[in-house]
Structure formats: C-alpha cells, structure tokens
Write a structure and sequence with these properties.
Length: 300
C-alpha cells in the first residue's frame, strides 16, 4: 500500500513514519504543501494522511490569517487533489479545539462546534469543507480530533512540567482538582494504521484520546515516579494562583491565564465512537503512555 503524508517532519509525523514503516507494507511518499502538490505522487497512493497544519500559538504572536491559509486553504487544496485522484482514503488530523475550547462533562462527536480561537475555527472550516463535498464511490474520509498528544520527541507543556519535577520544584497548582484527557502518540498511530488498512470503517468525525482521563496531580506523580523521586505537590489556594496568572498576562510572565487553564482545566474526551468503529481497544493505557513519554525525557 502506498501512502502519502504531509507534515512528516513534525513530532507526530516522525512517529507515524516510523510506525507505518514497521507495521504497514508499502511505500511512503511525503508531500510538502509549501510547494506545488505533486499530482504524480497523489495518483500513486491509496491513502493520504494530512498532518501538516499551523499549531495553536499560546503566545498569541501569530497572524490570524496564517491559520486560515494553512489549516483551511491548504487542506482544501489537498482534499480537492484527493477527490480527483485514484486515492481511496483521506485522513485529516484536526483537533478537539475545532469542537470546543472548554468542556463541561465529556466531549463527544455530537456536540455543536463552537471554537473560540483562530486555530479552532480554521480547523473547523477545513472539516466542514471535507464533509460538504460530494464523495465519489469507493472513497472515504476520516476527520480525527485528537486531544493533547504526547510521546518521545514531544516538547510541549508536558515537557515543561517534567522540567519542574526534575528540578525538584514543588508543583504549585495541586489545589486544583481537574481531569483531562491525553493521547499517547502510539495510540494515534495505531488508529491511523487501522483506518488505512481496513475497509469496514465509515467516513466521519472521530475523537481520539486515551481511555482514562487524569488529573495534573496524577501526571506529576507519574513524572516523578519515572525519575524515582517523590512528587512535590503544593496546594496553594486556586484564587491566589489565578490572581498571579492575571499579572502574568499583563507582564508576559511564564504563568498566564491561558497556560494556567491548560494545566488545570477539565477537558475530558470520549473515544467510544472510534473504538466501536474499530471494534478494538487501544494498545496503551493513559498511564502506560505517560510513562513512555516520561522515560523518553529521562533519556534526553
């Protein structure tokens, strides 16, 4: 099976490339969307996996037009090429942020999307474009909405949290009682591989997350365990922390309201739809995945 991938140089792209090389016979092609889309490559493939996109900028320094140009216009261009090619499957990596920036209860695919950021809005526009095009017989599309992805090579907020734990700095947000979903990159690769190698899954939107939601305190404990040290959890009043975060907003300090919300919000995702469609469980639990990520931080 020949597969085309965009965004192969990114964190997920590197992990997916390795996973497919080890698990799926065939040839991989890589598409650079900054250049003209090579129709010869598209015509050689059975599946296109669209990972490339402009990520959410927590520092708010990005031009809003970039989100729509990269996440919507380039996706539209690539999907049109797919529709006009012999390729049979199109997998678009969207985001749960296309559905909601905050969650009460558990987020599933039936929610009415209401993104608040240019990142989420641009992803939703791409989703809607894909859904609204007539789908030729023999073709299928899969819009995947992952939550926070982590794994070896990841340099996001989880890595920042790990550095706090490694240096013995007490985690000052232990007073917040939250639950949030994570996604081990290997579980995402597993889902993508299942979709491209099977023909019994219906087109549509699917959330992708690990089974268990964890509190940030639990995550800190897992990171500390990987370092063979005791977790240092400091329970400061949440109202005091929120006050200092507002100061951080004005002075552009490391702790801002948005970063605080990222670390302490409840954001629980249901993965029941994709598991039911695959009729399989995910290979790793949330805790197993976090241990692998933490150990990769240790190695580096």
């Amino acid at each position: 099976m020949n597969i085309a991938i965009t965004g192969s140089s990114g964190f997920v792209g590197k992990q997916l490339k390795k996973y497919l090389e080890e698990n799926t016979p065939g040839r991989l092609y890589f598409i650079n969307l900054r250049e003209t889309i090579d129709s010869d490559i598209i015509n050689k493939t059975s599946a296109i996996i669209h990972l490339a996109g402009k990520a959410h900028d927590l520092k708010k320094t990005s031009n809003s037009d970039e989100y729509y140009q990269v996440n919507f216009e380039l996706t539209k261009k690539l999907y049109n090429a797919f529709l006009n090619s012999p390729a049979q499957k199109f997998i678009f990596i969207s985001s749960v942020k296309a559905a909601a920036d905050s969650v009460e209860g558990i987020l599933n695919e039936d929610v009415k999307p209401s993104p608040q950021t240019h990142y989420g809005k641009s992803k939703l526009m791409a989703e809607q474009y894909i859904q609204n095009q007539p789908l030729p017989e023999g073709k299928s599309f899969f819009i995947l909405r992952p939550c926070m992805i982590h794994g070896p090579g990841n340099k996001g907020n989880l890595n920042l949290l790990y550095q706090f734990v490694r240096k013995g700095i007490p985690y000052p947000l232990a007073g917040f009682n939250n639950k949030r979903s994570f996604l081990t990159v290997e579980n995402l690769c597993f889902v993508i591989n299942e979709l491209i190698t099977r023909d019994d899954v219906a087109s549509g939107i699917y959330n992708v997350a690990d089974d268990e939601a964890l509190s940030t305190n639990e995550v800190v404990s897992i990171l500390a365990s990987s370092l063979k040290i005791k977790p240092r959890l400091l329970k400061i009043s949440p109202s005091i922390i929120k006050f200092f975060a507002k100061i951080g907003d004005r002075l552009k300090l490391p702790l801002t309201t948005e970063r605080l919300n990222k670390l302490t919000e409840n954001y629980v995702i249901s993965n029941e739809k994709i598991k039911k469609a695959l009729n399989k469980g995910l290979p790793l639990t949330a805790i197993e995945g976090l241990k692998i990520t933490a150990n990769s931080f240790n190695e580096n």
